Each structure stands twice: as C-alpha cells, then as structure tokens.
Amino acid sequence: MLDDASNPGRSCVLSKVLGWRQLRSCRAVLVLGPVAFALVACGRFAFPPVPDGKAAEVPRSQTATMWGDGAGGRLELRPDGTFTADDVCGDYDISAYGPENEPRSGSGTWDADEGEGQSSVTVSFEADRVTSTYEALRDGRTLKLWTYVGDPDEGHSLCILTLR
Fold first, then answer.
1. Could you tell me the pTM of the whole model?
2. Which element (helix H / strand E) includes 40?
3. How confident is the model over 93-117, as pLDDT tens digits?
4. Residue 24 contacts residue 36 (beta carbons within 8 Å)
5. Which of 38, 42, 43, 53 has the largest count of CB atoms under 10 Å?
6. Strand locations in the chain, DSSP E?
C-alpha cells in the first residue's frame, strides 16, 4: 500500500485526495461499469427462463395427441403427420412480438425430430407455411412442449403446451 505511514518517500496523490476506500470504490466502478454495460448491450442480465422440467425424448407415437396451452388454445397432432390448431400459442415469427405471434388457428403438417436427449415438434400451417417449433420437456409425470414467443432476449412470454 502506498500511504504516508508505510512509505513516506512514495506517496500516492490519489490516496491523499480521495483516501484508499474511495480509490477502491472508484476501481470497482471502473471494472464493473464496462461489464454491466456489456450485459445491457446484449439485452439481458441473465438467461431467459425455461419451463420447469428436463429435456425429454418423446416417441412420435406419444407426441401424436391433443395438447393445450392453458389459455384455451389446443393443438391436435395426428399420427398421419397432420394437425389442427385452435387459437394455439407459438413462435410464428422469431423477430417479432405482437400480431405476428398471436395464437393461431388452422391446419397443416407436423414433423417430430427425435434428437439425442430432446425431441422437438415443428408445425407448418398450410395456408401460409408459417411454422413454429416446440421442444419437449418432462416435469415429473407431466409432458410439455414449449417455445419462446418472440425474441427471448427481450423477455417475452413462453408458450407451454401440456397433454389434454
């Protein structure tokens, strides 16, 4: 430490003006300030939330069933690869939040990707080829399909479907 008592020949001007406590506080601000700025510039302080549960591998035969979103929306996935949706939530436009991602109704085709460790389901509406992909989770005995709605960095809501 450079102070008058321990080293009279080499004193620090800042320590005389500010004192050591203030100097340490200034250092902390100088170090933490850019870190906080970088986090804000990236759009978040923490990772976006994920629904409770663990990634699940779900066979196509178990995926082909009726799903509900908790707000009255439903998604029926049929074994033949077709689906019918009635006001179901989803991420229909990754770059938007609002009318582009409002719950949708319609029909189309779906496909399951049974990747190692986690399955996913992609629905494609036949009217306009708009798609949404849901990831599979298991929370105890509850099976879920979920996706972010809009850009997850902007803290928008989640769409969570459960078996009906």
1. 0.70
2. helix 20-41
3. 755 555 678 899 999 999 999 888 9
4. no
5. 53
6. 54-55, 66-68, 74-77, 82-88, 104-114, 119-125, 131-139, 142-148, 158-163
